[in-house]
Amino acid sequence: MSENKRNSLLEILLVSTRLGLTSFGGPVAHLGYFHEEYVRRKKWLDEKSYADLVALCQFLPGPASSQVGIGIGVHRGGLLGGILAFIGFTAPSAIALILFALLLQGLNIHDAGWIHGLKIVAVAVVAHAIAGMAQKLTPDKPTKAIALFALTATLLWQTAVTQVGIIVLSAAVGLLIFKHNKEESTGNLAFPVSHRFATACLGLFFGLLIFLPILKEFTSSYWLALFDSFYRSGSLVFGGGHVVLPLLEREFVPTGWLSKEEFLAGYGAAQAVPGPLFTFAAYIGAVTKGWIGGMVATIAIFLPAFLLVLGTLPFWNTLRHNPKIKGALVGINAAVVGILIAAFYNPIWTSSILEPKDFAFAAILFSMLVYWKLPPWVIVVTGAIGGLIFY
């Protein structure tokens, strides 16, 4: 391996780890942090390529923000780059939740002032990301209309299939309206993954989904049952981390694997740590089988996301440069802006801006990020300290 390649991989690990340590606020906020770091600061990919990658990951089941991070890692450093991007972004919260499970299960943290401060940080970061994406992806009245439709439908019909339906419908509208659009070509987003390897990943995804439950029935292995439960959870969830939490509750509390009190303690911990909410699996695994159980659960719930991203990226890269698909992508990207604005209102705004001082603090943090150009980690630290002082 050349020195340049090693340096590139090390940079991927360091940047993703910093994001894993500072990205509070849930999946939509993560996309804001990624946009700020990878698009605005590092310029590893352009606005349109980032929006296309987000659009793909909205289609796939699993943790959308983690899948976007994996895709950027693969684009930057190949398969190993994707693995390092995943480890950097996921490991901090997984380790933190395993420690919570082992040491701090009884600690009431969800009402802590510094956590409220971090929620307000998410308001500033997501607002900044939406402003940048809206300017680029909704430049005219038709795209603004699609975004408005997506925003309205997402808020009024909050079901598991609404988001996928909105994206499909927006793609169809975009294909009709923008099929002759002469807009500039999307940026070059190369994924060094062969079609053969991608097909193997998709085959493994469906193979595990079908055969793990069968193998579980013929064996009495606790570890296989644990792996199967988390793998299915990661394979069949649309809508990101907030959706997987109640699904995991139905999977593990009624079966007696952990008590309702233990689940609620972990739920509070999951809201308090940065990184993907899917790492809540690490907490459940650690409660049931110690730190090894936490590691197995983390691998199992994220494995479907990894296989799906690696299995679809090469084909997506071909499709996104097809002239017939570009119009659909214009519609999808406009819809993503609307979906992000809807998520910005609920749950980010509604759970964070509760009184005038919250709005004032959010305005200060937004100004620090947008006008004073301070790095995101400074905003995060300021938010946590401000939360301790004011709340």
Automatic annotation (TrEMBL):
Subcellular location, record wording: Cell membrane
Domain of life from the UniProt record: Bacteria
Pfam families: Chromate_transp (PF02417)
Membrane topology: Multi-pass membrane protein
Annotated TM spans: 79-102, 114-134, 146-177, 197-215, 264-284, 291-316, 328-348, 360-390
Keywords: Cell membrane, Membrane, Transmembrane, Transmembrane helix
PANTHER family assigned to the protein according to its UniProt record, in alphabetical order: CHROMATE ION TRANSPORTER (EUROFUNG) (PTHR33567:SF3)
Record family assignment: Belongs to the chromate ion transporter (CHR) (TC 2.A.51) family.
UniProt protein name: Chromate transporter
